[in-house]
Design goal:
Largest sheet: 8 strands, parallel, barrel
Distance between the termini: 39 Å
Number of domains: 2
Radius of gyration: 21 Å
Shape: elongated
Strand content: 15-25%
CATH topology of the largest domain: TIM Barrel
Strand order of the largest sheet: 7-8-9-10-11-12-13-14
Structural class: alpha/beta
CATH class of the largest domain: Alpha Beta
Bound molecules: phosphoenolpyruvate, manganese (II) ion
Length: 337
């Protein structure tokens, strides 16, 4: 069982709840966020009654959640989570498109990409400054210089920015610049990193690990939520299968499944999900119809010269065409774009 304290609950109200739980012979796990505290009751809580806690001062709700992911589950919250990033609503009626290059490479590259995706109607600019590369000899990203260039692109276009944070130690620095922190597939189960981004209130974009089940993904999200950050976005970016023709196998099932299991926004990444630019548009359109709350799409002004993921990056013209198609499809999914 979990007990959700009101945002206005005082320390003494919280202490009384905790002491009551302990007196009943249970252990307690406290998740203190900026907005509110959640008291997790550990152990077999079948014999506890919810109403016993719901009458206590400072308590908003006591909930019995059967899923192992508690705060992430639909049982915890029936309505979709919607939150605002610099005026862009994530998880609402409007499909949110995050677009931009895989990596920030230079000032001219990121500014050109930013203006192009803005022109085509994207809502958020993506670009990696810290890159999780398979080889230590590959381009690792521009680091803080890349963050500064993203901030300049935001200033010029008004687009909020999403960028990856690779390690817990870098969270404060990346959060100084980023409007959304991306946790990449390779880091989905880096629990120290999940806890670190859970302790701040910058929204987190959590990508599914390449060999992770949906439950693994939701349990990873739970780490962030349990640390107090409720602004989490789930991302399906394809998984490893025996198929070699595509880079990954995009799991279209994940979209309706995650929407059933969780109230968190779900975004599809057909770029990493396929690894081939020709396949990005069909999978983007399928994702929208499957119920995705948004899309992440790699766009590069000159894909052939990209320092990473050129093969799956759209040219600006193709991205603009895709946006037109998505706009036409959105009403079929009862969405706007
Ligand atoms: C990326 O978004 O560029 C990226 C590295 O993605 P993933 O973690 O899904 O591989
Ligand atoms: Mn990439």
């Amino acid at each position: 069982m979990i007990i959700i304290m009101k945002p206005t609950a005082s320390n003494s109200e919280l202490n009384t709840v905790v002491q009551t739980v302990r007196d009943l012979g249970f252990d307690v796990h406290l998740s203190s966020g900026e907005a509110r505290t959640i008291v997790g009751i550990l152990g077999d809580t079948q014999r506890l009654s919810r109403s016993r806690f719901e009458v206590m001062p400072g308590v908003e709700q006591a909930l019995r959640v059967s899923q192992p992911f508690k705060v992430a589950s639909r049982e915890f919250q029936a309505t979709d989570t919607v939150f605002d990033v610099r005026g862009v609503k994530i998880g609402g009626e409007q499909i949110v498109v995050m677009a931009g290059p895989c990596s920030v490479e230079s000032r001219s590259q990121i500014l050109e990409a930013a203006h192009a995706v803005k022109e085509a109607g994207a809502h958020i600019l993506r670009g990696g400054a810290y890159k999780p590369r398979t080889s230590p000899y590959s381009f690792q990203g521009l680091g803080e210089e890349g963050l500064k260039l993203l901030a300049e692109a935001r200033e010029q276009t008004g687009l909020p920015i999403i960028t990856e944070v690779l390690g817990a130690a870098e969270v404060p620095l990346v959060a100084e610049y980023a409007d959304i922190l991306q946790i990449g597939a390779r880091n989905m189960q880096n629990y120290r990193l999940l806890q670190a981004v859970g302790k701040i209130d910058t929204p987190v974009f959590l990508k599914r690990g390449m060999s992770s089940t949906l439950q693994d993904l939701l349990m990873a999200a739970e780490y962030i939520l349990a640390s107090g950050n409720y602004n989490v976005i789930l991302c399906e970016r394809g998984i490893r299968t025996f198929t070699r023709y595509t880079r990954n196998t995009f799991d279209i099932n994940a979209i309706p499944a995650l929407k059933q299991l969780s109230h968190l926004p779900v975004i599809a990444d057909p770029s990493h999900g396929t690894g081939k630019w020709e396949m990005v548009a069909p999978i983007a359109k399928a994702s929208l119809i499957a119920g995705a709350d948004g899309l992440m799409i790699e766009v590069h002004p000159h894909p052939a010269q990209a320092w990473s993921d050129g093969a799956q990056s759209l040219k600006p013209e193709r991205f603009a065409e895709l946006m037109d198609e998505l706009r036409a499809l959105a009403p079929l999914a009862h969405r706007t774009l």
